[in-house]
Design brief:
alpha+beta; Uridine Diphospho-n-acetylenolpyruvylglucosamine Reductase, domain 2; Uridine Diphospho-n-acetylenolpyruvylglucosamine Reductase, domain 3; Enolase-like, domain 1; 3 domains
Amino acid sequence: MFPKEITKTLKLFGYFNPHEVSEAVLLLAQLGDKARVLAGGTDLIHTMRLRQITPEYLINIKDIVNLNYLKENAGLEMGALTRISTIKESEIIKQKYISIYEATEWFGSPQVRNMATVGGNICRSSPSSDLIPPLMTLGAVLKLVGPRGERKVLLEDFLLRAGKTLLDQEILTSIFVPPMGKNSGTAFKKLIRSSQDLAKVSCAVNISVEGGRCRDIIIALGAVADKVFRAKKAENILRNEEITDEKIKDVAQRASQEAQPITDVRSTATYRSHVIKVLVERLVRLSIERAEGKCG
């Protein structure tokens, strides 16, 4: 028999359907914590059905048409309402931002990918988010619009903890990813129980190499702390250093030490700690190969 909470109906709520960002921002300013923004809705509606959250109002931003786009503009620019399926099918993503593509390959089911948005995945601030790790390693910058105007923040700074971000009566409108540097390689992978499951552990790497040395490296870890985070101590082991097998292993070991995994229904802390080392080492090596043009 299914748990009772799964059969619960949605609690009654007020509904707004703005067609301009300014209108949505005004509604947020007026309604405050009583309102939630509805984008793809794949997570929000589910949690509302479970009565984990019970907002008094929903502000549906799906019909704000200028938030749904993907284009090259001295880098990669995506509207916050860009669907995961659109990102997955983009040739720009496949050819120039492979780690983002890898994050969409096992993102839920086709139905979920056709509904879920990049902005929703970011603003949920889940430690198990698929898109946040690769976007973080690529230096993604977010544009936020609120009653006090607009501002731009690094994705890395945007995340505070699980379910909590810097948003202050603001709406995420776009994501900008700088162009990949010369001799740079990137990769993403998550470990899951089934094809549509949340990550037990995830990792993204972005590395720049030159003459056998690491010019720069960024490592983002997911599902092993209260938010996706950079393993900065691990990065420092290899940055501006000669690339050797020993140093790569040291990077993986330090990344495992920086994580704060927990035991939950998907995995144990012990397993996650071990897997981080394996995953980081593999992705660092794969990213180096891609930077050197040895694989696609």
